[in-house]
Amino acid sequence: MAQPTRTTGQGLGAVTRGRLLFGGDYNPEQWPPETWPEDVRLMREAGVTIATVGVFSWATLEPRPGAREFGWLDTVMDLLHDAGIGVCLATPTASPPPWLGARHPETLPRDEHGSVVWYGSRNHFCASSPAYRDHARRITEDVARRYGSHPALRLWHVNNEYGTACWCDTTARHFRTWLRQRYGSLAALNEAWGTAFWSQRYDDWDEIIPPRRAQYLINPTQSLDFRRFTSDALLECFTAERDIVAAHSPHVPVTTNFMPLFAGLDGWRWAAEEDVVSVDVYPDPAVAHDDPAGPAHGALVQDLTRSQARGPWLLMEQAASAVNWRPVNRPKDPGQLRLWSLQAVARGADAVCFFQWRASRQGSEKFHSAMLPHAGEHSRAFRRVRELGADLAGLSEVAGTEVTADVAVLHDWHAWWASQQPGRPSAALDHARLLAAWHQALWEENLTCDLAHPEDDLSRYRVVVVPHLYLLTDASLDRLTAHVHGGGTLVCGFFTGVADADDRIREGGVDARLRRLLGLTRVEEWWPLGEGETVHLDDGTSASLWAEDLEPAETTETVAAYADGPLAGRPAVTRASAGRGAAWYVSTLPERPALRALLARAAHAAGVRPVLPGLPPGLEAVRRGQSLFLLNHRPEQVTVPLHHPHTDLLTGHVHAAEVTLDRHGVAVLTPTPTPPQKESRTCDEGVSSP
Known about the structure:
- Helix 13 packs parallel to helix 14.
- The strands form 6 sheets. A 9-stranded parallel sheet has the order 5-4-3-2-1-9-8-7-6. The protein has a 7-stranded mixed sheet with strand order 11-10-12-13-20-19-18. Strands 22-23-28-25-26 form a 5-stranded antiparallel sheet, covered by helices on one side.
- The chain is of the alpha/beta class.
- The two termini are 42 Å apart.
- It has 3 domains: 292 residues, Glycosidases (TIM Barrel, Alpha-Beta Barrel), CATH 3.20.20.80; 199 residues, 3-Layer(aba) Sandwich (Rossmann fold), CATH 3.40.50.880; 78 residues, Immunoglobulin-like (Sandwich), CATH 2.60.40.
């Protein structure tokens, strides 16, 4: 996996300075200047330590081409600094002003049908447009020159939620340049794309276009390469602005905010170019109210972001209550704001921020909640924000500490892109859905896990889990082989290792190295299941979505077999030994309890134990540094026995024998020193299950 090519040498620790940060997006340009001192007063009252400023301010900073209006931002920067509030200063390039689109229509993106995506919203730019890049460079240069040495500046925030794709002629030329660099020759491109199929052979570079709307199915490798190119084109925009701000303030770290589990960018490659990795997380309170998939999905995004950061990370955006973009926008239950914020801290966040500080009265997001809501400073919502600020201020000893894991879940954006193409055995096979299902099974078992790129060094993990990686490179297959032969355990899901980096089907349908590792002679046929269709296994469980006709090697153990249907009697789950390790293969999607039990069994056999064993469903346990976080997602109160006294960092209360968590309750426990006693007994985990 790509390693960072540039760093300030200053990570998130340079920003946090030994404390957890608390704040959010501040858009003072939406409000009259007399409001600004009041905002700062209320920020101090709430415990805000950092404010993100300028994200959507391009038209305010540059109301006409070449004009610069910095006076208002000077005032805001000084106000925040005088109040002891740090600034995460954004380059405003995510939302070009109307004059840019009107004067330079070539900066506007086109969709795959050739239609112009007009200005009037945000993120309306073609990443390949020289005019856009030039104007973005100019405003970024001037902002960085003016504020690069301002004492309030703590962090640079480049652009916002990158992800816009474009299919215009300028993009086509840029795409061809990218392809030349990737392949070197048309012969190599034709070989990689398999253009002998359907008479698609290219004889001139200028014949190549982005995968626009076509009569029928697009060449899948052309589409895959366009996804790669789009991610790289946007990354070029990020690194250009990053280098500008870094030149003016080399001591200040740089970030940009990812969208959660977003398919549009290669998150591993992007994270390698950031000093601080940040993400926006917006779980649906309505889903979480009835379904553990809500908090489980939050944990997935948090684990992924921590893994991208290889340490502490920044929660750049979340909602204080309701959002505005779902069909029905339910507010958060009392306690959910605190619970989900502290879940992020438990899983490695050193900053908890929101969109936005003050609720907008106009614009498309006027019904999006904010730290300071429409109801004002005396509202229950603002009281909860103040209480969260106080909680975070009391957790300073957690800042900078690590979350360690013995389990890695493999995830790769290229495999995701390739598996999204049409013309597959089943359109219901969804990479993100499978990733979430397998991660949730580990989360429910309180098995802490990292996410990892399949080409990473996996030797530090006892268990490696592959929910579904349709595409695996040769380097990835070598890593998996080394992991198992070195004594690790692999648990591999179905339809994995089918294609190479060019989306070419491996000989035999599944790569021979992976088949040997898994103890499979052949995968005879893929057998996708219809919507609502299930199969029964001979261990009494059921499964859905997918099945396979496997031919195991003689020494391979059949853990469970299909009990009915055309595959009755054939292996469904297998286990094989390879080198000093073991490899499990799961050829279907077990029902949720069965998948959890299977992963727990494999982990237990590998010597991996839950943070706390035997906890009731919905009670989450995460260890970060010396602190044990207990988070209650259950609808009722729960009590956890303790083997010896623990102090709750949130309350200062010493719990001698047990800790009780209300609905949405959280405890952050550290062992309380006690005088040594004769024949005293200790517990490695420190806390027992109920």
